[in-house]
Design a protein that fits this description.
- There is one protein chain.
- By secondary structure, this protein is α/β, with parallel strands linked by helices.
- The protein has two domains: about 1-125 and about 195-210, no CATH class; about 220-475, Rossmann fold (3-Layer(aba) Sandwich).
- It is about 30% helix and about 15% strand.
- The strands form two sheets. It has an eight-stranded mixed beta sheet, with helices on both faces. Strands 3-2-1-4-5-6 form a six-stranded mixed beta sheet.
- A hairpin with a 2-residue loop joins strand 2 (about 15-20) and strand 3.
- Helix 5 packs across helix 14, helix 6 (about 245-260) packs across helix 14 (about 460-475) and helix 11 crosses helix 12 (about 405-410).
Length: about 475
């Protein structure tokens, strides 16, 4: 069990030591509560990065507290501190069972010293003994006198150096091999860690290698930041309403727009009035796809990218635009297949990526036309079993439609959104059933920011943001 140590002194100085490195978190004179919070947060980060239970020893104003620190952030006391001691440290999970009685520890001679306190917990390993001061060994003084030079004699001439020719089978250096040769150094090193406890050490001047989780996140960011030649079309589908299609469209568009530098259009391709306009920012002009089709010739011949701004609704923070479906409650026009192709041709002139929301009717002409134009299929579902069942049937419908549909279904990405906080187990069950059928399955945890109101990436929990990044990267790898 690895050891992590934290010290909080009376003057507010907080220090954490892990893996042989020591970091001072607060300077003397800081608030005691802030110092304790800093020690607990830093220690939990260190445990989370190690991915295993660690022994955490905290000395707070001369009083020792010993815990088993778990990667999920919970702390289980291993010693039995007095009530006054326990009240000074908060956010500590109660022990599952009372530890065996132990002999009282001797009083610490100084607040900054951490001593071994024996406990009855079998998983607790003894703290490593402090090694004695090492003996300094002075190397012998080198002999700096020049070595004698042997003068060749006439009867022992010096043999000339022999240059060995390359083997015959290696062949001469050719022009092609010269072109393939580079004198640039292949620098495959990673930037230092920027997150977690390793990132904290880097910020205070102790450079650390990034963790596996941070490297995976960097890889996902590289994928979603990429620009592909031509316009790529992503269709988000499920024949069942309420399957979180609109949040998936908004989440994917935000990730691609933020990391890829814009150029993303979220298109509400609903045969009637869709919900994407309700869940996103709205421009005063109130234009929809019908207005775009009306001015199709003007937009096709336009020389300025700014022309499209009068027909779409910009998401200021998330850096993507929204093309509305017809929001006229008294209208009776349903978008036809030919109109979808025309609108797609106009949008492709102005955007590098189109993320298309869809209605609930796979038989609708605009739905079929969307599938014809799709490069990457995304099945959206929540943890409701009826949503998952209809998502599976939608996938089957597309797969059996034609050769293009079969390729889309085989390469599909499924996004399972948790509808309630306690739905993670059900989400994992649904994901396991989808995994043999598609290329990738991503679970998005429950987040109040996705339940109602405008969908804004900054309002989501960091765990949710990381899930959307993973979902967008999974989509991007199929483009």
């Amino acid at each position: 069990m690895q050891l992590i140590e934290g010290v909080v002194t009376r003057d507010g100085k907080a220090t954490v030591r892990a893996g042989g490195e020591s970091v001072q978190l607060t300077a003397p004179g800081a608030d005691l509560k802030a110092a304790r919070d800093a020690v607990l947060a830093s220690a939990k980060d260190a445990v989370r990065e190690r991915g295993e239970v660690c022994r955490l020893e905290i000395t707070d104003n001369g009083r020792r507290h010993v815990f088993a620190a778990h990667p999920d952030g919970s702390l289980v006391p291993l010693a039995d501190p007095s009530p006054a001691d326990a009240a000074e440290l908060h956010d500590v999970a109660p022990a599952a069972a009372a530890p065996a009685p132990v002999a009282p520890a001797p009083a610490a001679p100084a607040p900054a010293l951490i001593e071994d306190v024996p406990t009855g917990a079998s998983l607790l390993t003894a703290a490593p003994a402090v090694p004695s001061s090492p003996q300094l060994t002075v190397p012998p003084r080198p002999d700096l006198r020049p070595a004698p030079v042997e003068t060749p004699r006439a009867d022992h001439p010096v043999e000339p150096a022999v240059v060995t020719a390359p083997p015959a089978d290696q062949g001469p250096v050719t022009r092609r091999s010269l072109r393939d040769t580079t004198f640039l150094v292949d620098d495959s090193r990673h930037d230092p860690a920027a997150k977690g406890f390793r990132g904290l050490l880097t910020r205070v001047g102790i450079k650390q290698e990034p963790s596996a989780a941070e490297l995976a996140e960097r890889d996902d960011i590289a994928v979603v930041s990429r620009h592909w030649p031509g316009t790529r079309t992503i269709a988000v589908v499920n024949r069942k309403g309420g399957s979180a299609k609109t949040p998936v469209v908004a989440g994917l568009s935000a990730v691609f727009g933020r990391y890829g530098g814009g150029g993303v259009l979220a298109w509400d391709n609903n045969e009637n009035s869709g919900t994407l306009p309700i869940r996103t920012e709205q421009e005063p002009h109130g234009a929809s796809v019908l207005d775009l089709l009306r001015d199709e010739d003007r937009l096709r011949d336009g020389q300025s990218h700014g022309l499209i701004a009068g027909y779409v609704h910009h998401q200021s923070a998330d850096r993507y635009d929204v093309l509305w479906s017809d929001q006229n409650d008294f209208g009776d026009h349903e978008i036809q297949a030919e109109e979808v192709h025309r609108a797609h041709a106009v949008a492709s002139r102005y955007y590098r990526m189109l993320v298309m929301d869809s209605g609930n009717t796979a038989r609708a002409a605009n739905w079929k036309a969307m599938i014809e134009l799709t490069n990457q299929l995304v099945i959206a579902t929540t943890t409701g079993e009826d949503r998952a069942e209809l998502g599976s049937r939608t996938l089957q419908t597309i797969a059996e439609r034609d050769e293009h549909g079969a390729r889309l279904a085989e390469n599909a990405v499924v996004v399972v959104s948790c509808w309630k906080p306690a739905d993670m187990v059900e989400a994992q069950r649904i994901a396991g059933l989808f995994e043999p059928l598609v290329r990738s399955v991503i679970i998005v945890p429950f987040d109040n920011a996705l339940k109602a109101g405008r969908i804004r990436f900054d309002a989501m929990h960091p765990t949710t943001q990381r899930a959307w990044l993973a979902a967008a990267a999974a989509v991007g790898r199929g483009l």
